């Protein structure tokens, strides 16, 4: 679901409500294990499906990263995620790489 890479994390599971709790916990755990004050790239290139819970997940991971003084960047977001974030008025909060 979430794997560490040299520069960050790669999500490979659908970011939908059915997986939200598992992804939330896994993402928080991975972020807490990262070195403080580092840049972490969240690669979403393998995410095949998103729903509104994906926006919530990313916002929660951003909070966790902030608590650890990590800079989080999102690479390869699905167009549907960007569209949902725009619809909800939070697109400017997403740190797209």
Report what the structure shows:
The chain is of the alpha/beta class and 97 residues long. The chain has three helices and four strands. Strands 1-2-3-4 form a four-stranded mixed beta sheet, covered by helices on one side. Helix 2 links the parallel strand 3 and strand 4. Helix 1 packs parallel to helix 2.
Net shape: globular
Share of residues in strands: 15-25%
From the structure provided, what is the oligomeric state, counting identical versus distinct chains? single chain
Taking all Cα atoms into account, the compactness measure Rg is 12 Å
Strand order of the largest sheet: 1-2-3-4
Average residue pLDDT: 94
Report the count of strand segments.
Answer: 4
Quickly give the structural class.
Answer: alpha/beta
What is the percent of helical residues? Answer: 40-55%
User: Poorly predicted ranges (pLDDT <50, ≥5 residues)?
Assistant: none
Could you give the order of the helices and strands? EEHEHEH
Q: Helix segment count? A: 3
Distance between the termini: 21 Å
What does the largest sheet look like? 4 strands, mixed
């Amino acid at each position: 679901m979430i794997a560490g890479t040299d520069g960050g994390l790669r999500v490979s599971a659908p970011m939908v409500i059915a997986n939200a709790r598992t992804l939330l916990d896994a993402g928080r755990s991975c972020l807490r294990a990262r070195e403080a004050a580092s840049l972490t790239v969240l690669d979403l290139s393998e995410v095949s499906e998103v729903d509104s819970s994906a926006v919530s997940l990313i916002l929660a991971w951003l909070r966790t990263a902030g608590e650890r003084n990590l800079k989080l960047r999102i690479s390869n977001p699905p167009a549907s995620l960007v569209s949902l974030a725009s619809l909800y008025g939070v697109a400017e909060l997403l740190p797209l790489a």
